[in-house]
Amino acid sequence: MSTALTGPRASLDGDPLATRLDLVHRTASPPRLLVRAVAAVAALAAMLTALAVAAAAANDALDVIGHEAGPQVVATTDLYFALSDADAQVATLLLLGTSDPEAAAEAETRYAQRRGEIAGALLEAHRLAGGDAAQRTTIETVMEHYGEYEQLAAEALLLADQAAYPQGEAPPEVVAAYREAGDLMSGQLLPLSYNLTLENATTVRESYDRAQGRIDTGLLVVAIGGAIALAALVWLQIHIARGFGRVFNPSLLVATAVCLLYLGTGLTVLNAEQSALQEAKEDGFDSALSLARANAVSNALYVDQVRYLLDDERALVYEQTFFDKVQALLYVEADNLEDYREKLTELWEPQFAVVPSDGLLGAGLQGGYTMSTSESWQALLETDAAMRADTGSDASRLEAARAAYEAYDEDLDNLTGEHLTTFRAGIDEGEKAIADFAFLLPAAMVALAAFTFTGIAPRLREFR
Amino acid sequence: MRRAAPLLAAACALPLAAAGCAADSESILDADVLRIAVQTDQPLIGWENDDGEYEGYDVDTARYLADYLGKDIEWVPILTADRETVLLEDRADLTIASFSITQERKQSIDFAGPYAIVHQDLLVRADDTTINELADIEGRRLCSTSGSNVADRITVEHGVSAIPVEAADAIECLAMLVDGEVDVIATDDRILAGLAWQSGGQTRLVGAGYSEERLGIGMRPGDTAGCEAINRAITAMYADGTAELLMQQWFAPAGMDLSSIPIPQYEGCE
């Protein structure tokens, strides 16, 4: 800049002012000045637009994760849980027969409670499905099938009432009636609701990937737009310095500084937004999702135990599906249940030395969450072994299994709650950051344009 | 690790650099042709007919899914033993071949689906009345195809020790059963229904249903979007009635009980 200025000045002689004016105005003209100013403002606009678009994409993704598909994941797993647990109560009632009226009364109360929850969860899921026709149809199918299930369950319970048998001696027609209900539950109702959960997880992933892509592009456009805007502002400054002999233009300096500030802040905020989004998705949503699924599968696991006791003919199948679910929840390479328990004991000696990360439960147990859920998981498996080996009454075998399941379920609920809190906090934080930033964007654009044009206005006036 | 990603992605967004950045995110959704591995030794499921065409339930499922995804098919004929290796050696994109989802298999490959829920059952000679449940095969000669985990699981999961005999394919097992070289074949009930149908009344399905199997679609690991797209296609296949139609078409003539066809509960795509 300095050489450009000393050049014309060094050659001054005669009337200094006239020559100077003559010299400076030779390179400067209003159109040239305007072209440079407009270029600078256009580049600034491009940069700020890119910032706004990327921030909006992040906001959309947070919205989908936090307020649409995310809650739907919770609603559909609640539905799954209520359905599965209602089925557990029906199977329990049929298993107990006329023995243990106290436990039977409790199961009956719980069955009634779950039925209410199912109705609520169905309505909630239907509401959250919004305009998604496929999801609404699926939920309506679940509603229909659930009506059938209630009817079949009522028939089985009625047959049981009429037969009035002691625990574990359900007559074949009762078992057959229950099978029909149970098959409808495991073969239609539960898969439909589970797949709805997964479908919403897919929606979350898609909008997350889309947002990350847009933010990546946004970062690039902001960087390039910012660089061009800065270059244009400097170009304008040089032009004014050369053409009008003024080294510094305060307005343009302010505009340049604000541009630099926004470029820096914009890149930082987008980067932070990307991390916040990633955290909400990967640390928050993903682990909350797999724990919600773990909750659902764990209840189905307990149902397999009840069915194992109820239906002797299919006992082998229910033992195998139990093992399958155990592996899906927390994977340890093992040949059978006994082998699994031994391997797990080895891994957890001393005190949960190695926590397997594979399986729906595995992810949620990592990092500080291990203790109580792991303990109750191990206890559940030990109780299961005892239940299968035990030759005592079905009521007492079931009692032990249920107590172990309930203890485990409570720990799992707490664990899920902790992860859900992390998830919601992540969403709130991300949304707040964007809201603050988005508010300042239009103001910045107006200010930058104003500073640029007030910077050139006095120079334009020289031509009048 | 994610720290460097925005910059990398930013670099990838430049058209000139884009060519070098597609490396590790390979999805079946990007290909026009899907290489689908199907069995060729299972009547009614995966089978080469007299005209040299593949047919059966799994083959029709493959056709439906490819059509739903808008892809052409290049068939890769395989036997049970190849189901995992064709994927790992990149000779096929999908395996649709009576492939049970197990946590153990999931350590090396991914599964979409399941696309069908079946039960393990037993096939015996029609005149053999000594085998009526799983426990009855203790000490008997049990045929299964190599690469299947059936015999192993009967021994270690259910504690029934039969004498394992391995054959290359299901048809060979059937021939051995009919000839009296083995006493029982164990595998999923669809396959057994096909074999029983093939044997023309010389064999009998026991109906012991001792285990529930979820048949999945094998994929190379890491293709989450591809796996989710296949699950959506399976959802459509069940919702529009195709799944039931195919079950009826292939297995009703073989005398399978199709009164309730369960909807598969997806494994989930990681």
How do you describe this structure in short?
Chain A has 464 residues and is mainly alpha-helical. Chain A has twelve helices and no strands. Chain B is built from nine helices and twelve strands.
Task: Tell me what you see in this structure.
The complex is a heterodimer of chains A (464) and B (270). By secondary structure, chain A is mainly α. Chain A has twelve helices and no strands. Chain A has one domain (25-461). Chain A has helices at 2-10, 16-27, 30-96, 101-129, 133-163, 172-244, 250-310, 315-329, 337-347, 360-365, 371-389, 394-461. The longest helix of chain A is centred in the middle third of the chain and has 73 residues, at 172-244. Chain A is elongated, with a radius of gyration of 35 Å. Residues 1-12 of chain A have low confidence and may be disordered. Chain B is an alpha/beta fold and 270 residues long. Chain B folds into two domains: 23-117 and 213-251, Periplasmic binding protein-like II (D-Maltodextrin-Binding Protein, domain 2, 3-Layer(aba) Sandwich), CATH 3.40.190.10; 119-212, D-Maltodextrin-Binding Protein, domain 2, CATH 3.40.190.10. Helices cover 31% and strands 26% of the residues of chain B. The two termini of chain B are 19 Å apart. At the A-B interface, helix 6, helix 7 and helix 8 of A face helix 1 and helix 8 of B.
